[in-house]
Design a protein that fits this description.
The strands form 2 sheets. Strands 1-7-8-5 form a 4-stranded mixed β-sheet, with helices on one face. By secondary structure, the chain is an alpha+beta fold. The radius of gyration is 28 Å and the shape is rod-shaped. The chain is built from 1 helix and 8 strands, in the order αββββββββ. Pfam families: DUF7266. Keywords: Membrane, Transmembrane, Transmembrane helix.
């Protein structure tokens, strides 16, 4: 014989089980959202570091090409920059103005696709910089007649 208490106990266990599942799902969703935010922030920092490295290398090659061409010679320096950073493309902009940074004659502004922040790397050169934007990847620094430009490498 089943009394009324057994039925209440069965309903109570079912409700407890459903509540436990709901709470577990809510906790799991919160943990995944937090992990996603941390991963996104870390990816942003990795992109910034990668762009900084590429920018420093490219700035050094630009300054070297300027020194070679400073004697009246022409110079073409090939830079084997990566095509992507953190699995996305990026752009390299050669600029005359360097966002109010005194003492520099120009800068590179590198921006990864899908990321907000850009990396700015100063360049010290005697040549006139031909402003423009090229996609990341193998590039050529072309120095001639007191001018410097960035071009996409065909090789």
């Amino acid at each position: 014989m089943i009394d009324g208490h057994g039925a209440e106990r069965g309903v109570s266990m079912t409700i407890t089980y459903v509540l436990a599942l709901g709470i577990s799902a809510a906790l799991l969703a919160t943990l995944l959202a937090g992990a996603g935010a941390v991963l996104e922030a870390e990816t942003e920092r990795a992109a910034e570091r990668s762009l900084e490295t590429v920018g420093q290398e490219l700035a050094g090659e630009i300054e070297a090409a300027d020194r070679v061409a400073g004697d009246g010679d022409a110079a073409v320096v090939r830079v084997d920059a990566p095509r992507t950073v953190v699995e996305t493309g990026y752009d390299v902009e050669l600029r005359q103005e360097c966002d109010g940074r005194p003492g520099e004659t120009g800068c590179l502004r590198l921006t990864a696709h899908g990321f907000e922040d850009a990396v700015v790397v100063p360049i010290r050169t005697e040549a006139v910089l031909e402003t423009g934007t090229v996609p990341g990847g193998p590039l050529e620094v072309v120095a001639a007649d007191g001018r410097l430009a960035l071009e996409v490498s065909e090789a």
